[in-house]
UniProtKB/TrEMBL annotation:
Name this polypeptide is given: Olfactomedin like 1
Lineage: Eukaryota, Metazoa, Chordata, Craniata, Vertebrata
Disulfide partners: 119-301
Subcellular location(s) of the protein: Secreted
Domain of life assignment: Eukaryota
GO biological process terms, semicolon-separated: signal transduction
InterPro entries in the record: Olfac-like_dom, Olfactomedin-like_domain
GO cellular component, one term: extracellular space
Coiled-coil zones: 49-76
Main location, first listed in the record: secreted
Organism for this UniProt entry: Malurus cyaneus samueli
């Protein structure tokens, strides 16, 4: 039985090996076939790539040729245009210049109408000063509404505060115990700096904590009557020697103004006319007056007057004038000194009704009387 099993196993091996050999031969033939097909495919791809490169080179040459022809054509067109149209171009440029001059003349006429152009006097000198009171606070502002029936005095002490003291008259203000004689007017938000203005019963001030927001506050009704943002203002001080004031509001014969400095024009002062009812900008002027070594400024009869001093404090003087209507200011003799006083000013504000300067200097409230002359 054992021998029978051995015979069966041997016969199965004899049967298996020929089948395996046939399969191996078929596999080799298939592989050879695949290799041949891959060779044919590779030749075809390489041939097509070579054709693409040739086509790409031909296309590049055609495009370069077309660009060259276009450049030649453009030069011919430009030359022809310069020869035939030079006179027309000159006429167009001259027309644009004439149009611009007409527009500038119209703008000046509009500004004169807007500003009423009724000022017929200029600042010729500062006659005297009077120290009205000494409150002791280094920074502050005091003023009177320039309206016909206004006699009240307003005291805004400090560069950041929210309480205005109102006095019935300058005599009440001059009395020793000022707080007992004053009416306290609280504001919804504190002010920033000392550049406030009171005009037609309203207090206009730069809101503390804002870049350039101006508040219009009704003093009698004690409520906010308007707000506006002053473009470009608030980034640098209006005056280098009064860094607490970024926006200085001013009043003259023509109404409400705002003064500030801008870094883009070399820290020079910008004058802006504000319409007080709508709280809108009417017009702005970039001036040649620098804010460097300036401590204050005021508007009088459409003209900016900038007060300069030394950083250590000395003799304050008006050194730069700018008339927004373009009238020459030579007759106003820059270099006018504020009389008999050494020190510095926190504010200098003009009252057009009384033609006096209300100034705050080293804790004192000062009046400067002005000498004016008729415009030539």
């Amino acid at each position: 039985m054992c021998c029978d099993a051995h015979r069966i196993s041997t016969s199965s091996h004899v049967f298996f090996f020929p089948q395996l050999k046939k399969r191996m031969e078929k596999c080799n033939q298939d592989v050879l076939g695949y290799v041949e097909e891959f060779r044919d495919f590779s030749k075809m791809v390489l041939s097509r790539l070579a054709g693409l490169n040739t086509a790409k080179a031909e296309l590049k040459r055609e495009v370069e040729n077309l660009l060259t022809r276009l450049e030649h054509a453009q030069r011919d067109i430009e030359y022809f245009g310069s020869v035939t149209d030079s006179n027309a171009c000159v006429e167009v440029h001259e027309g644009l210049v004439e149009q611009q001059l007409l527009e500038e003349a119209e703008e000046k006429k509009r500004l004169k109408l807007m500003l009423n152009a009724s000022c017929d006097h200029v600042l010729a000198g500062i006659k005297s000063l009077k120290i009205v009171k000494k409150t002791g606070e280094k920074h502050g502002s005091w003023m009177k509404d320039p309206g016909k029936k206004h006699a009240k005095i307003y005291l805004l002490s400090g560069s950041v505060n929210n309480v205005v003291l109102e006095f019935s008259s300058i005599m009440a203000f001059m009395e020793n115990n000022q707080t007992l004689k004053a009416r306290r007017v609280p504001l919804p938000w504190p002010w920033q700096g000392t550049g406030h203005a009171i005009y037609q019963g309203f207090l206009f001030y730069h809101r503390h904590g804002s870049l350039n927001e101006i508040i219009k506050f009704n003093i009698l009704r004690r409520n906010v009557a308007g707000q506006m943002l002053l473009p470009g203002a608030g980034r640098i001080p209006a005056y280098q020697l009064s860094p607490q004031t970024k926006i200085d509001l001013a009043v003259d014969e023509q109404g409400l103004w705002a003064l500030h400095a801008e870094p883009e024009i070399g820290a020079n002062i910008v004058v802006t006319k504000i319409e007080p009812v709508s709280m809108a900008v009417e017009h702005s002027w970039d001036t040649p007056c620098s804010s460097r070594d300036a401590e204050a400024a005021f508007m009088a009869c459409n003209t900016l007057h900038v007060v300069y001093n030394s950083p250590s404090g000395g003799s304050s003087h008006i050194q730069c004038l700018y008339d927004v209507l373009g009238a020459p200011s030579a007759h106003s003799s820059p270099g006018l000194r504020l009389p008999k006083r050494q020190g510095s000013h926190s504010t200098v504000h003009y009252n057009p009704k009384e033609q006096q300067l209300f100034a705050w200097g080293d804790g004192s409230q000062i009046l400067y009387k002005l000498h004016t002359e008729k415009k030539v």
